[in-house]
Amino acid sequence: MPTTAKICGLTTPETIGAAIRGGSSHIGLVFFPPSPRHLDFDRAAGLAAPLPDSVTRVGVFVDPDDAMLDRAIAAGRLHTLQLHKTAPARVAAIAGRTGLECWSAVAVRTRADLDEARHFIGAATRILYDAKTPPGAALPGGMGLRFDWNLLDGFRHPLPWALSGGLDPVNVAEAIARTGAPLVDVSSGVERAPGVKDMDKIAAFLQATQA
Ligand SMILES: O=C(O)c1ccccc1N[C@@H]1O[C@H](COP(=O)(O)O)[C@@H](O)[C@H]1O
């Protein structure tokens, strides 16, 4: 199966167009106010309205409450919820309440961190392995940090999964070859400044993913 790609933290119609033209399977819209990629609901609605359903729209959240989810789902016409720092029971409740696919982010620095993924069986439909950000960091993701891909060697994935954290157009082919990731996810690696996506980098990332 070819590896598919999610371009995350898109904030303009132009960069969403670049992701779609380049063959991105998923686009990510961030709903987390401390993030430079955060979208308010009106902005998200404007971006999502013209989009075809063929590209999966993923909303990115950090332990969201129901009100945040309801407004974001409606505004972004979301298909999938990517949940950071959200406990398994809460993920299960969100999946049941919304009926949407839920991805759980697992923050990785050590091999032991991977075991967290098993707790999401029955709750999440996919695990997103991401680099653990330092204590006190403003964001739990989207910081361009990479974890040691060797940690995934021999790991028995309990659920479908995706690889993220510090990917970019230069390293993504190696990441796929090294880990066998079925889906790769990038945000800061296709930016020219925090929150500012670069159309050429998006195109290069997607080309490298498909090569
Ligand atoms: O991108 C953000 O601002 C963000 C905010 C809150 C949670 C997650 C966020 N991004 C996710 O982080 C990973 C990795 O990003 P990067 O490529 O290392 O910059 C990715 O899954 C984003 O969806």
Short description:
By secondary structure, this protein is of the alpha/beta class.
Strand content: 15-25%
Q: Portion of residues in helices?
A: 25-40%
- Physical arrangement of strands within the biggest beta sheet: 1-2-3-4-5-6-7-8
- CATH-assigned fold name: TIM Barrel
Count of DSSP strands: 10
Order of helices and strands: EHEHEHEHEHEEHEEEH
The total of helices stands at 7
Largest sheet composition: 8 strands, parallel, barrel
Helix and strand composition category: alpha/beta
State mean pLDDT (0 to 100 scale).
96
Bound molecules: the ligand O=C(O)c1ccccc1N[C@@H]1O[C@H](COP(=O)(O)O)[C@@H](O)[C@H]1O
The CATH architecture is Alpha-Beta Barrel
Low-confidence regions: none
Which radius of gyration do the C-alpha atoms yield?
16 Å
InterPro entries: Aldolase_TIM (IPR013785), PRAI_dom (IPR001240), RibuloseP-bd_barrel (IPR011060), TrpF_fam (IPR044643)
Pathway: Amino-acid biosynthesis; L-tryptophan biosynthesis; L-tryptophan from chorismate: step 3/5
Family: Belongs to the TrpF family.
Enzyme class: isomerase
Structure description:
It is a single chain. With about 210 residues, this protein is of the alpha/beta class. It has a single domain (about 5-210), classed as TIM Barrel (Alpha-Beta Barrel), CATH 3.20.20.70. About 30% of the residues lie in helices and about 25% in strands. The chain contains 7 helices and 10 strands.
